[in-house]
Amino acid sequence: MRRSLFLLFFIGSICSSAFAQAPKHIPLMNKYWDLLSSRTIKKSASGTYEPYFPPPLMALNGTTITLPGYIVPLKTAALHKTFLLSVLPIMQCQFCGEGDIPEMVEVMMDMPIKFSNKPITLKGKLKINENPDGATFQLLNGVVLK
After folding, report:
1. pTM of this prediction?
2. Residue range(s) defining the domain that contains residue 84
3. How many Å from the N-terminal Cα to the C-terminal Cα in the chain?
4. Where does the signal sequence lie (predicted)?
5. E strand or H helix at 55, and its extent?
6. Residue 115 is part of a domain; what is its CATH number?
7. Secondary structure of 6-22 in the HEC alphabet?
8. H/E element holding 19?
């Protein structure tokens, strides 16, 4: 009897996992995310690999942009003033920066906001960091748009 129950449980768990679906999320790409994903790496004349920012992307440096995305906290807290913003939910952000998925943007808010699993839309000044130290893209003076 115990053997039959174990077998039934085992088959049931296999069947339920076969029908499991990937978490759903809202596609958040916009023209700014598309431009951020155009950053590539090129080999310099000295033989080192350096980030390359195409002219249309560099034209955004210092301008105010709007980015939708998901909060990726940098620390455990109720409120966040500095965090990362991703086009994917936190459970899928291991793919950020791979393929057509742009890397995350470091956000510095004017006022702290509560963490949410739901997408938000932020407005702020884009800073492109050409130095290999730190985040490549930063959104400064961020505010949440309603």
Report:
1. 0.76
2. 23-144
3. 59
4. 1-20
5. helix 55-58
6. 2.40.50
7. HHHHHHHHHHHHHCCCC
8. none
